[in-house]
Structures are given as C-alpha cells and as structure tokens.
Amino acid sequence: xxxxxxxxxxxxNTGIVTSPFMLFAMYILAAFGxxxxxxxxxxxxxxxxxxxxxxxxxxxxxxxxxxxxxxSIWKIQHNVLHHTYTNIEDSDDDxxxxxxxxxxxxxxxxxxxxxxHLYIWFFYGLSTLSWITVKDFVRMYRYxxxxxxxxxxxxxxxxAKVIAWKLLYYSYVLVLPMIMVPxxxxxxxxxFVVMHFITGLAITTVFQTAHVMPSTAFPLPDENGIIAxxxxxxxxxxxxxxxxxxxxxxWLIGGLNFQIEHHLLPNICHVHYKKLSKIVAETAKExxxxxxxxxxxxxxxxxxxxxxxxxxxMEMVPVPQSKSQMPVK
Length: 329
Fold this sequence. Notes:
two-stranded parallel sheet
C-alpha cells in the first residue's frame, strides 16, 4: 500500500506526466494506496499490532503523518475514545458529528437530517480533506481541554510537529506537482481533491458501517456516568462485521470487516481476525450474546443507509445532562 501511494506521486513529481488523463490516473492510484495505509498499515501500527517490535509499530504509525493526518491525535480519538466508549454519545468521537449529520439517537435532530442518507456520501468523501486541514487542530484544542496534554509546552510542541508534518505532506502531494507538471495549478488541485474524495469515501464508509447500524446499540451511562454492561459485551453490542468470507476484500481494507474481533482484541494483527471470528461467534452464541454480522459489504452499506434514514426521522433520546461526558483520564 505504501508503494501504491508513493510510486504514482514519484512519477508525477519527476515531470514525465504531461496529460490530464495521466495526472488523474496517478492521483487515483495514490488514493487506493492512501486508503490502504489508513485502513491497514497505520491502523495496525498505532494499535501496536503491526509488529512485536514497538519501534517498528511507532515508525509504521508515522505513515499516517505521511498521508496528511497525525498519528498522535488519531491515537487519542481512536484508541482511547472510540475503543473505550464505543457508540456512547459525547464520548465516542466517531459518532460526534457536525450538526448536519446525526449518527446517534441521542444526538439532537434537525429537519435537514431527513435527507442525510442521500447527502452523507458527499461529506464522507470530504472527510479526509477536513482531517488534513482543520480537524486535527480542532481536536487538539479539545483534547487539551480534556487533559490529554500535560502542559502548555507539550501542547505547543505537538502543534509544531503537526504543522511540520502537514507542510511536508503538502510539499510532495501538491506544491511539487504544481512546479513539475506542465498543467494548470487548478488541475493539480482538482486531482488532489479527487484523491482525497476517493480515500475519504472508502475509509469513512468502512468505519461507519461497523457501528452506525440498525442492529447495533447506543448505550447511555447512568447518572454516575457508568455503563451497565461489561466492556466485552458492550463491544459486541455496539459493533458489526461484514463480508466475513471474502479474503481479498479483508486484505484490501486491512481486516476492518472483522470489527468485532478488532474491538475485542485491538492489539492483535488483522491477519488473524478471520480465524478468531469463529471462536468469538461460537462463544457469543454459547452465552447468548449478540454477534452482529452482514453477509456482504453491500448489505452492510444498505443497512447503514436504513439507519441513517431512521436517525433522520426519530426523535432525540436525551443523554443524562449531569454525566453525558464520560471521563477520559
């Protein structure tokens, strides 16, 4: 996946690409590589699952920085908040959406949500563009308030690192191509946007079809901020698998079709999920615990659409005001 991302960009930056067709072909190929890095390489690495060697995991985690995002911010958002408080309103950042999107029955409903199942795909496509420009900085500011940065100095150093990595990224995916390719700058910019739209649509659809589904639960904490169920049962209740029999598809998306196994055992490399899924499914059945799975990815997307449509019509189920924000540190 690293090769699929970097080789097309190297070809572009050598200046041998002279036609719009070749330009867009290279950026589209890079989009598939970027998606693979996001769903497979960096995802395993930041969970400490890519290798037994911590240094290798650390360095491979930096591949996220090489595609414009930031490994440190992702680790807080994904490893800490999403994996700990899956599908819990105000605590799981994966369902904390801007006002025009609604991913939880406990989020406020607006009239525009009636149509979100139609327009949401456009915003899924913009997700990584938002990520590499604004979202990382917004999250850093919020995570500082939540106590994830010990001091102002640590926070400022992290901001400097984020800016430096992003400048490096923009230099080889946007600035250098504008210098080397004998085409209009707006065309380079458009190819860049297309690359990110494909990546954003792919990654966000894969992640959201694992949790925002008619079959998954959206638990609420009690007045003391406590979730009633056991953490393992909570992960099974809030997560769904799809396309479990397709080895190629599983390889393509870094094993994220086995999200249940990933949530239960996040430090295990995705290549083992298929075998583990049989054990997990049998154990869940033995103890009468739900094990959600869809036969194909298309079926999962269709159910996701149904859920989005349902969320656009159902009234809000209030979160207990006193303890709506779960503790994070």
